[in-house]
Amino acid sequence: MMEAIYQYAWLIPVLPLVGAMLVGLGLISANQATNRLRQLNAVFVISLMGAATVLSFAILWSQIQGHAPYTRTLEWAAAGNFHLSMGYTIDHLTAMMLVVVTTVALLVMVYTDGYMAHDPGYVRFYSYLSLFGSSMLGLVVSPNIVQIYIFWELVGMCSYLLVGFWYDRKAAADACQKAFVVNRVGDFGLLLGILGLYWATNSFEFGEIGERLQTLVESGSISSFLAVVFAVLVFLGPVAKSAQFPLHVWLPDAMEGPTPISALIHAATMVAAGVFLIARMYPLFEGIPAAMNVIAYTGAFTAFLGATIAITQNDIKKGLAYSTISQLGYMVMAMGLGAYGAGLFHLMTHAYFKAMLFLGSGSVIHGMEAVVGHDPVLAQDMRLMGGLRRYMPVTAITFLIGCLAISGIPPFAGFWSKDEILGAAFATNPLLWGVGYLTAGITAFYMFRMYFSTFEGKFRGNEMEIRHELKSAALVPNFGPGAMDTRELAATASSHDSHDSHGHSEHPHESPWTMALPLVVLAIPSMLIGLVGTPFANYFEEFIYPPSETLAMAMEKAAEFEPTEFYTLAGASVGISLIGITLASLMYLWRKIDPAAIAAKIRPLYELSLNKWYFDDIYDKVFVQGSRRLARQVMEVDYRVVDGAVNLTGFFTLISGEGLKYLENGRAQFYALIVFAAVLGMVIVFGVT
Known about the structure:
Largest sheet: 2 strands, antiparallel
Low-confidence stretches: 476-501
Shape: globular
Structural class: mainly alpha
């Protein structure tokens, strides 16, 4: 029976693909009829993802029972010594990722029915969702790095389509282009790395690449510097996809897409693809200490960077986006420190509680739109929220669970996974432990700032003064050609007020069951799933261990547990989280400390955080405006030099043609005269000399 499940495992990515294709074909060939049957299409797509979820759980259970890894491939291309196969592979890492991706995708699809109920693009959205799920699942089961790269690009394409889903909104159109361009930078590095590794090792298989490269470096056939370059180039792919510094700038802007996408792509699955690739390529990275250091320090700095920016964000989704960047930094740091199991454990726990937080933010936005209208500037700003717990109890409780989980409060999931990373950092690199420890405190502060600003206190959504202030600020771009004068600004603000900013209720309301149910379901793993990886009985570590280790080595490592060290580190970690929560309570719940007064005292640091460390401004100056200047200069050269040379050639051809026209007249007497003149000229020249 189990063998049959493995033989049909290819259905897991194919089922959602079938859904996407059939719904997509329906939209192309019979658009109106397909859109009329919107709920039927949704049920069809959700059912196919449900079937993929059941298969994924069956495979995970089989792997837990000890079934050997299974790979099935067929030759896709061959030329001489070059052979490339495609297929699928099932091992412990794949099984875990399949369950994470399918469960989150299924719950997000259910949630979408409520969130997108009134959107005219409802069916198209489900088609894109299904295509994305298929691409991500295809990436997870890939047996070699070329197939991973193919699905890697498909995932990027789906991200582009989904982030820019509301393409008629300029912000969404700009965001999907930014995501696409920034990811191209990382993907180009990944492609160069793949080609370099193939040139060196003559293989695309994960295990073989690592072993052969190690042998080549030891024998001196390839310099260790070149091996580091290849590894870092491959790492550029995860840097872009997992939004690590310096390619992190696309993820917050990508929140312009509908909230279910923020949860599915940018919290749970797509951004986790980068960490997954590091895990898959672990045989390559772990043999190159310099590359491991680059990974660890990049992750640690990104964790700190994301947390420090999240402190000052007022848009609820962008705050969560920077939180995602920070948590991904923890995972990447763990991978770089050699804590393979800890990094993947945090990937799994984070997928559930961050998906719940994003869906919770979508529920808040849905409730706020009843008051402020369909205007993201007003519906997503925490300065207009407050007191929502009274109106949205289910959303508030699940959001609080998510905040406790991400803050690392026991026994919630985030505590076990984050502490395992901090423990590994403390044992191997105390400096990175210090960065991670400080980041844990900041994380607790900004998450509870978000919770208190949104759900506690009095409701501020009907205060027109705040609305006008937010609209005025939103209409002035920071830079670029869109700047308006004050008269334009006033006119635009009034038109926005008349069109977008009117809801139909005085107070927000709880979301429908299709949105509330996924929140409740996700709250369960957010609370309990961490228990599979406690240091007292680390089942996760025994299940997921690096390819270079055996099960016996993993069991032995899991058994090396020192209670005193654990309690000390865990106590310190919980302590700093409680300090962060207390500070957030004093500032945003009890109002004993004025945040504005603190911001005034540390103005430069506050401005640094508020302006996202100025990365967007620097990139705009250097890359956007710089490339425009370069393009203008190239155009000038093209116009003056290239076009000038072509025009000059044409001019000379015209003149010479016109001149020859008068010489070539067909009269014999005229030709005789020319010959006589030429002879006379030669006689004179030679006679003189």
